[in-house]
Write a structure and sequence with these properties.
The chain contains 10 helices and 23 strands. By secondary structure, the protein is of the alpha+beta class. The strands form 6 sheets. The protein has a 5-stranded mixed beta barrel with strand order 9-10-13-11-12. Strands 20-19-21-22-23 form a 5-stranded mixed beta sheet, with helices on both faces. A 3-stranded antiparallel beta sheet has the order 4-6-5. The model has no long low-confidence stretch (mean pLDDT 95).
Length: 412
Amino acid sequence: MKQSELFTKTQREAPKDEEAFNAQLLSRAGFIDKVMAGVYSYLPLGNMVLKNIESIVRNEMFEIGGQEILMPALQPKSLWEQTGRWGKYDSLFRFKSHFSKNEYVLGPTHEEIVVPLAKKYVSSYKDLPFCAFQIQTKFRDEARAKSGLLRGKEFLMKDLYSFHRDEKDLDEYYDKVTVSYKKIFKKVGLDKDTYLTFASGGTFSKYSHEFQTITPYGEDKIHLCEKCGLAVNNEIINEQDSCPQCGNRKLKEEKGSEVGNIFKLKNRYSQPFNLKYKDEKGEEKEVLMGCYGIGISRLMGVIAETYNDEKGIIWPESVAPFQIHLLHIGNSPASLKFADKVYQVLQKSCIKVLYDDRKSATAGEKFSDSDLIGIPWRAVVSEKTGDKIEIKKRSEEKTELVSEKNLIDLIK
């Protein structure tokens, strides 16, 4: 893509009404645009990052047997009354139709939709287990929407729901999802800073689990157990002062941002909808469930907060909008012709490249924008470089002159 054709631009200063570091950085770099508190437009570069994260998450869900569906954001009041959550879910967006006077919600989660859906297809033990997931926009009327992409009123989320005949089967799949989530966080570059964290199980079980990424900008307090490598959220520490896994009392307090959660729902939602199956003996039993969420847009914000320096973002290669940022510097017709050729060769080699061909931008502006946007590799063509290309990693200071062929081999 040619940068001269990109309709968005970088900004020298962050928006004055933006408090969260992730949103300041992503706004300045031209990845997002704030519409109102907790609601953002994802600009071309930002949408590319979201799609890359989606792809990683989607492929991992397929690996653990997930079947992708897409459920409606618009949900009827009656289903939420059936589970008893209509009057209890604090952040629910509710409204009435102007025509029928029926009441609806904008879905913050999808248990009320997926369980009646499963009921249409589950009747026998032969229909279990199975799991279905979606990647979809969620809506929550957050009272504190001041954390950029980390706490939005509208956000993109992957939610997976699993259906089981007994607790043994649920437990086994729960462990499988835990392993899968660790793979996801490794692939997006957050494995070193992300911890499986004990959280309250609420009405479902004694504990649920969150995945918390350590960041100085995090809203949550977590307590790391250096003995067993797990963490405990603040709510659990207020109930007990030791690690639930190993009993260690020496826990290190850190700030964290939640990037995923997993719950054993058991019969919490199958019961209200009478979701049952017949076992081998013909006896009716309740279907047990698990649910597993990952915030796709939230992950983008956490990655930006984790990978940056004073100049801007440093995207991990797996989620970056492009693999390489090609800059043409100067006014030399010969170097411009060579830069155009390098751009075409990169494209033909299926390397995703952003080509800064802007004639109005100075060399300083191009270098500054490249650092701010944070594409993993930078390649510079100028009269000074001749028939070579100056390359460097965004995360490093060292530069190197390479040939066109060497550039392709290096990036591939």
